[in-house]
Structures are given as C-alpha cells and as structure tokens.
Amino acid sequence: xxxxxxxxxxxxxxxxxxxxxxxxxxxxxxxxxxxxxxxxxxxxxxxxxxxxxxxxxxxxxxxxxxxxxxxxxxxxxxxxxxxxxxxxxxxxxxxxxxxxxxxxxxxxxxxxxxxxxxxxxxxxxxxxxxxxxxxxxxxxxxxxxxxxxxxxxxxxxxxxxxxxxxxxxxxxxxxxxxxxxxxxxxx
Length: 187
Fold this sequence. Notes:
- The protein has a domain at 2-38 and 95-182.
- 63% of the residues lie in helices and 5% in strands.
- The protein has helices at residues 2-5, 8-28, 43-53, 73-81, 96-121, 128-144, 147-153, 161-182, and strands at 58-62, 85-89.
- The chain has a two-stranded antiparallel ribbon with strand order 1-2.
- Helix 2 packs across helix 5, helix 5 (96-121) crosses helix 6 (128-144) and helix 6 runs antiparallel to helix 8 (161-182).
- It is elongated.
C-alpha cells in the first residue's frame, strides 16, 4: 500500500496530462473530425420519431434478436432485409461540463489502477525504460483495449479503429513517460 501511495504524483499528473492531450486531439487535430455523422435534413423527423415511440435513454439494437429467438425465421428475415444497427439514446440536456468531469474521474481511476499494477510489479529505483515499458503497455490496454471489441461487437465502423488506437498510443506514451520520470528512487 505504501508503494501505491508513493505514486500519487505520477498517477495524478499523468491523468491531468492525458486529459489535456485528449482535449487537443479531439478539438485541434483532424483525426476525429469525421467520427460522427449527422442524419442530414431529416434530423427533426428522426428525433420526432424517437420521441413518439417513448424510447427511454439506453442502447438499443435493431432488429432485436437475443439468444432465445435468434433461430426464429421472422428474426432471420428482418436481419436479412436490413437495415440493422444500434442506437444510443441519451437523456435530454447534455452537460458538457459534467461529461468532462466524468472523463477526468475516469482518467484518475485508470491511472490509479495502472499505478497499482506498476507498484506490485516494480520496485523503487527501477530504471526509467523498464517503468516506461510496463506502464506503457498497461496504459495502452486500459485506454485502447476495447477499441477492437467495439468494432467487432458493437458495430463501430472499422474506419474509426485507427483513431481510437492513435488516442490509446498517445495516452499510453504520456502515462508511461510521467510514471518513468516520477518513479520513486531506491531507498
């Protein structure tokens, strides 16, 4: 526990650095500019349709087929005819400040777990490169581990995978660099 507590500064500083890096990547770089598409001039019709159906916030799949009815001929026909997809409906009143706060909380939590793994695997005084390797690999898994699964299972377009992996690599390099720089010296 003492080893983890001694990592409070790299955990906090790496989370803050990744927060700012993510802001720069998402606001100033072109890599994510085409991640989301609008539905064009028919947005008001789509929104009215969702409202009229009374769909509450959640993640929905269409056509819907779970394990109990996947062999149903009607379900198979709906998938064959298409379209198919998922839709995420969020609660009204998106709050950007709250979302950024939750993102920062997530980054701190990820950094704490990375710090825990590093504190168990490495001793004080471990050389920079070894800390960088372990923390970098762990951070890459933490920040990018779901990117491939999102394309496989959630239908996220494959064209978005390079951007997600780019983010994960940048976040991992920053985290590894901060931990390596501030790793506790041998006693």
